[in-house]
Structure to design on (486 residues):
């Protein structure tokens, strides 16, 4: 917080209100892509990490962060990329998981553990159950590992017959 | 909803109509450097020109394969698979953007100014990702020929994707411990993505091979069509060999075992046979990594580059 400029919020508090353009129920903080917000002599540096390397939402996130901070009176804003360590769905907060489920999107399970040797091939269904966000059943089926955005897969519940999306583990 | 500082990001139309000094269109303000704020210093003891060429090799593999997948994404058996192909193409395009940007930073370090470097003989002050993708000539692209081959049917695309993903996953996994921290970080993200690509292609190849007589025949024909280009994947270019010795690159020659293990799990399950076809030689031993390509490459680039070349000053 910078005093004497009429601002009543910190840059971090502003950055934390910015939502993901494709999962608007989540803030960037919920999603775990907001890595650092540093204020120094009135200048703000925000560090974010991409979810998927090709995710087109990244440019929108950057733009929304700059826009929100400008609106809040922070004139000098820089958004930096942090590539390392790579984003993992394990970084989605507990609140974020609740919001996803409430919006009908099954939250991710635990991300695959790093292996030292070659990465095993998976020729079967997902290695752990995905619960239907509508009825709570674990009797669900993977329809496609790829869906409307890079981070989601497509499933169907065999109990309530509803299709749903799932944030797949990476 | 949070305070009045919030941007109405949950409604694109409201967000567009908000005032302010930022240029806003429906999807952000355009494309920024994907390595913005990342330290791209070339590690000590690494030849910057070699690193530039190596990043172009890996970036071109992703860019050209992505283009072929994009061509298949309105032509798949199911809508879900068109979406899947588009997603995989997008992941590879993202990897290409990072790698070409990394090449640009390394080339700047190699030359000071950036103009006319070892990556090619096209002059120009702005050698960023767009320059590399849209304004290089065919012989300046360093992708393996497998990526560029003329598009076949879905069986061919799946066979090609399995071979490409199994090979690339082995390369990227090795690169996660590269002495270049930027390359290592790009690889660590890529490993997570390509793991899904490889599973997808493997599951489809089994479904096709172990499916009907027609699907099996097409899958086998697809595998046979791309098989002559497989040895090239595991033949290191001298730049790859030099950088591997310096702990920066992956030497593909050492990855054949890991690749064969994957294929040995998939092909029998798919009831497909390992094709018995000779390798497709290059020109005087020169192949994709040397900028020597197949006839398909010129047509592919003509399509890929046409819009950018029609209006070279355009930005988006």
């Amino acid at each position: 917080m910078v005093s004497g400029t009429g601002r009543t919020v910190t840059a971090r508090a502003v950055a934390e209100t910015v939502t993901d353009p494709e999962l608007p129920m989540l803030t960037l903080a919920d999603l775990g892509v907001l890595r650092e917000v540093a204020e120094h002599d009135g200048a703000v540096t925000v560090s974010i990490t991409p979810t998927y390397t090709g995710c087109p939402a990244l440019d929108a996130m950057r733009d929304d962060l700059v826009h929100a901070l400008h609106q809040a009176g922070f004139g000098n804003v820089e958004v930096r990329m942090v590539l390392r360590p790579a984003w993992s769905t394990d970084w989605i907060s507990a609140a974020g998981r609740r919001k996803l489920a409430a919006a009908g999107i099954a939250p991710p399970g635990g991300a695959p553990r790093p292996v030292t040797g070659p990465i095993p091939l998976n020729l079967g269904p997902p290695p752990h159950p995905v619960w239907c966000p509508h009825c709570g059943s674990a009797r669900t089926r993977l329809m496609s590992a790829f869906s409307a955005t890079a981070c989601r897969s497509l499933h169907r519940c065999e109990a309530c017959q509803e299709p749903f999306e799932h944030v797949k583990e990476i | 909803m949070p305070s009045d500082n919030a941007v109405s990001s949950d409604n694109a139309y409201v967000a567009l109509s908000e005032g302010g000094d930022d240029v806003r269109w429906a999807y952000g303000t355009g494309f920024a450097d994907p390595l913005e704020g990342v330290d791209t210093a070339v590690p000590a003891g690494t030849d910057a020109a070699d690193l530039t060429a190596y990043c172009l090799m890996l970036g071109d593999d992703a860019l050209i394969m992505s283009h072929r997948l994009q061509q298949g994404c309105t032509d798949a058996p199911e809508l879900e698979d068109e979406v899947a192909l588009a997603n995989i193409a997008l992941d590879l395009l993202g990897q290409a953007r990072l790698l070409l940007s990394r090449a640009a930073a390394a080339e700047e370090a190699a030359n000071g100014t950036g103009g006319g470097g070892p990556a090619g003989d096209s002059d120009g002050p702005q050698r960023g990702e767009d320059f590399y993708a849209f304004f290089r000539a065919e012989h300046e692209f360093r992708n393996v020929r497998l990526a560029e081959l003329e598009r076949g049917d879905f069986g061919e695309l799946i066979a090609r994707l399995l071979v490409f993903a199994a090979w690339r996953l082995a390369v990227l996994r090795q690169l996660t411990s590269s002495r270049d921290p930027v390359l290592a970080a790009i690889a660590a993200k890529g490993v997570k993505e390509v793991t899904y690509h490889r599973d997808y292609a493997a599951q489809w190849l089994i479904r096709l091979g172990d499916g009907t007589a027609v699907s099996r025949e097409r899958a086998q024909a697809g595998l046979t069509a791309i098989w002559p280009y497989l040895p090239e994947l595991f033949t290191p270019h001298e730049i790859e060999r030099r950088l591997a010795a310096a702990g920066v690159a992956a030497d593909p020659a050492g990855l054949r075992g890991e690749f064969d293990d994957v294929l040995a799990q998939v092909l029998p399950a798919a009831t497909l046979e390992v094709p018995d076809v000779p390798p497709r030689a290059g020109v005087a031993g020169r192949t994709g990594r040397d900028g020597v390509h197949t006839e398909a490459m010129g047509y592919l680039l003509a399509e890929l580059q046409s819009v950018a070349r029609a209006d070279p000053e355009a930005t988006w």
